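Hi all, posting the design record for the shared folder.

TITLE: backbone redesign
STEP: 1 of 1
STRUCTURE INPUT:
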């Protein structure tokens, strides 16, 4: 395992530099537009408003679900994981100077933008699959942009996507657990442990 880790890291660095070298004008403009729209989650708030206004009851349900999932993802990625995992951003010399000028100083791991985008998209898809499919395109473009702009390594983006998917499950799991008196499994299938249980946090 230890011998494989340097090879994986080297492969990721090569992939990062390859994505950074994607210099097609249309690609840079498209990715930059998506990033600008998604900054401070403006894109997803706008989509939620559009769904709520035009989509009737289903649109309102999708909007609420999307914003809830996004909020959970932002807390997990930015307020929890980024505080536990310190990772430097990719080297500035790999990217265009104008791309890295405004990138944040926080930990590179994980991508909070990706976590928010995936959580929002997954939640909307559950309520309204057609709308979720449209969101998925923007979320994918944003994930690529986070690497292309020098903000993140691909593994940061992958971790953000995983957090986004997990965030969608939490709003369902927590109320269900509370209804069962705090148990995470049905009463009939519960296991009696000899001591108090422990919840181990996963180390944005």
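Okay, here is what came back for every position:
SEQUENCE:
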């Amino acid at each position: 395992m230890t011998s494989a880790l340097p090879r994986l890291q080297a492969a990721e660095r090569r992939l990062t530099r390859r994505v950074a070298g994607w210099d097609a004008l249309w690609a840079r403009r498209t990715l930059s537009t998506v990033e600008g729209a998604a900054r401070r989650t403006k894109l997803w708030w706008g989509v939620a408003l559009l769904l709520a206004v035009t989509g009737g009851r289903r649109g309102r349900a999708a909007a609420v679900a999307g914003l809830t999932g996004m909020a959970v993802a932002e807390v997990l990625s930015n307020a929890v994981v980024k505080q536990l995992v310190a990772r430097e951003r990719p080297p500035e010399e790999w990217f265009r100077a104008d791309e890295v000028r405004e990138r944040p100083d926080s930990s590179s791991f994980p991508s909070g933008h990706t976590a928010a985008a995936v959580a929002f998209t997954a939640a909307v898809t559950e309520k309204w699959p057609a709308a979720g499919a449209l969101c998925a395109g923007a979320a994918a473009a944003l994930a690529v942009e986070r690497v292309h702009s020098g903000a993140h390594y691909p593994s940061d983006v992958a971790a953000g996507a995983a957090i986004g998917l997990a965030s969608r499950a939490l709003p369902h799991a927590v109320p269900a657990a509370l209804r069962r008196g705090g148990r995470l499994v049905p009463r009939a299938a519960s296991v009696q442990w000899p001591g108090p249980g422990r919840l181990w946090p996963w180390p944005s």
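COMMENT: The chain is about 70% helix and 0% strand.
Let me know if anyone wants the other runs.
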